[in-house]
Amino acid sequence: MNTVVTEYEVLIRLGLFFGVFLLVAVCEVMFPRRALTASKLQRWVSNLGLVFLNSLVLRLIFPVLAVGMAVLSKDRGWGLLNNLEWHPGIEIVIAVVVLDFAIYLQHVVFHAVPALWRLHRMHHTDVDIDVSTGTRFHPLEIVLSMGIKLAVVAILGPSAIAVLIFEVLLNATAMFNHGNILIPHNMDSHLRWMIVTPDMHRVHHSILAEETHSNFGFNLPWWDRLLGTYRPQPKEGHLQMTIGIELFREAKHLLLPWLLIQPFLKNGASMNSTDRENSRKNRKY
């Protein structure tokens, strides 16, 4: 099974990536949630350019990626699940849930630590949010994220098929919940108990700091509710809310070269610095 997974991993991932991307993109045209404010062509060239750049960087830096680490861990007996007897189906469920929780925690940390927020904030500087935003991450963040993921896989010891399922689900749901798709409120209110919906995640891209630092889930919606980071709706409403970060709203910041140097430009408020600023204001008044 491991041989089959590793042999066809690239084809599976590419096929599902382009399939989901196309499906969400079509839904955005047919059922748009918000009017776009910037050039879609310019944004997509930059956002999709990051996909190719990040893929190249990962292949150059890491000898194995997450699925390869699962195979290596199995061969060497690393990880909890490799040293316990589990039904394969139960193991897959456990692995997907634990890996998703790890991604949630990582996301919170990247908002809370100023140096990491400098890397992650590029994802938030998109002035519109659509399917392409789900692919918009700085190469340095991607490298750090992969290092964390490899460590979690080695410690947990999931099967290669479980890791591939998680990776595919994460990529697919990231594109879905960044989609500029209109989902009826009644349907959304039920869906967001099972998966992070576009309306739920859009709050996370608000220009308001208290909303930016909420709704951290990408795939499973439960962690935000359980750990107190859930915010059901944006203060200004989905149609009136402003997307992005105040510091980076000029047109040049949509261009790929500017995205790459963004972590080294002006500082922006991380979650902790925002909390400190709010505390200072409260003491003042």
Description:
The protein is an all-alpha fold and 285 residues long. It has one domain. The chain has helices spanning 2-30, 40-61, 66-76, 88-112, 114-124, 139-156, 160-177, 185-191, 198-202, 209-212, 222-227, 256-261, 271-284. α2 crosses α6, α4 (88-112) packs across α5 (114-124) and α4 crosses α7 (160-177). The longest helix is centred in the first third of the chain and has 29 residues, at 2-30. It is globular. The termini are far apart.
What is the topological layout?
Layout: H1 2-30, H2 40-61, H3 66-76, H4 88-112, H5 114-124, H6 139-156, H7 160-177, H8 185-191, H9 198-202, H10 209-212, H11 222-227, H12 256-261, H13 271-284
In a few lines, what is going on in this structure?
The chain has 285 residues and is mainly alpha-helical. Helices cover 62% and strands 0% of the residues.
For the structure shown, list the relevant keywords.
285 residues; 13 helices
Which sequence of SSEs, written as H and E, runs from N to C? Answer: HHHHHHHHHHHHH
Weakly predicted, low-confidence segments: 278-285
Tell me the total number of β-strands.
0
Q: What's the mean pLDDT score?
A: 92
How many domains?
Answer: 1
Largest sheet: none
Shape: globular
